[in-house]
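Exercise: predict the fold of this chain.
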Amino acid sequence: MKVKQAIFALVAILLCLNGCHDSFLEEKVYSNITPINFYKTEEDAKAALISVYNTLRHSNAFQRQIILAAEYPGEATWNNFSGEAWRTEMDQFTWTTSSTGFYQIWSQLYVTINRANTVLTYLDNIEFKTPGLKEKIIGETRFLRGLAYLYLIRFFENVPLKTEENMAEIESSNEGTSEAVWTLIFDDFEYAKNNLNPKNSGADVGRATAGAAQTMLAKAYLSYAGKPWNKSEYWSKAAQEAKSAIDNSAYGYDLEQDYERVFLLENEHGSEYIFSVEYESFMSQGWDWPTFTGIRSGDQIKLDGWSSLTVETEFFNSMATTDKRRSKTFVLSYQGINNPDRTYTYPESIAIPHYNKYIDRTDVGNGTADYALNHYITRFSDLLLMHSEAENELNGPTENALYGINRVRARAGLPLLKASDYTKETLREAIFQERLWELCQEGHVWFDMKRMNLMTTRIKKYKVEEKHYVFPVPQNELDANPNLVQNSLYK
């Protein structure tokens, strides 16, 4: 949402001691906001919903750690030996149950879930007068809860199920919960699909829509059909939902003619946008991703970069020089910000390959963490490629299976694929490769390798084992909750 976020907090509890008499130990609450007394008006419900959206922007969520966890283990990206040890562990497949990022991601996603559950629990305290508003707020809340659970279960597989019905269960178990969690995810996205607007406008741009819900439902079905759940009957569901979203004119989705326009600040809600984490400069709601991926001491962006997420040379070389995505995906050449007469080029004056995708030099905030570019959780090309994958797994390399991938390749200026040249297995690899070129740096690759069972065959640089297809339950959580059980491959 490119609107000023609502902020609300707990009012301090004032205690008063009245001397030595019977009420000495009584707590006198003069002002206290709790879920029980907060939910009174429609505006309260809207503010509570904003608090759920705000959790996505946390550094332990989509501002930083979730993207890194999905990118570093892939073959496109590495950490350039930067920062915390967890980044190197992820890049080199040496992580342990105590690696810091797992606890950060797990705990923050449950913050999203718990806030969503609170909204869903207390909305009935409000008498809604605006027609359809209650259903819309429920739809957005359930979309966000479904999103958090989708990331949790794909990362960790065995996770506690927490809903508005069991919020009091502090020490929930993660044994035997997988099917119930998947059912909740499907139900949440289905409800959102049926109760949200096809698209939003004005101040509501950036909120979840029916199109976003249907796209994420297709992604959930796709994930459930693939490894490790292998529910093959869900390939058809994924294909159906994806094609329905592609063809729905009310959503208005389409590929941008120019790949570069997808990542321009001025076009962040263009035809390819489906759902993003929203950022805004000069309002304490910015993002540091351009700094994180920008070139350190490179005179590339106004406030300098950190070179903390960079490009594997082999991946850089894998993209054809004729690919129209290349100049936006990678830093090839630029004029200095402070020295505009100097031209920097790779590999002449730039030591290692860097990403250019989330660099828009018109995007200038008031600090290194105050950029306004949004992070795409999903966009139209992701949807097209999901449709191709589902169709291929369902029926093999048919024209239907090639529809989505060939639209993406046509925009990139690459030759179209022919069904007769492929088997199901080789087309699966081609779809993965196309997703890597198209969606690198956007937080998809680890999930793609997991779902397609490609991690141990694609990663050649480091030793990859079967356990790397799932993350361990964080040791901190195991220590705090005796009802949690570690994933079997990490015992």
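Check your answer against the key: The longest strand covers residues 273-277.
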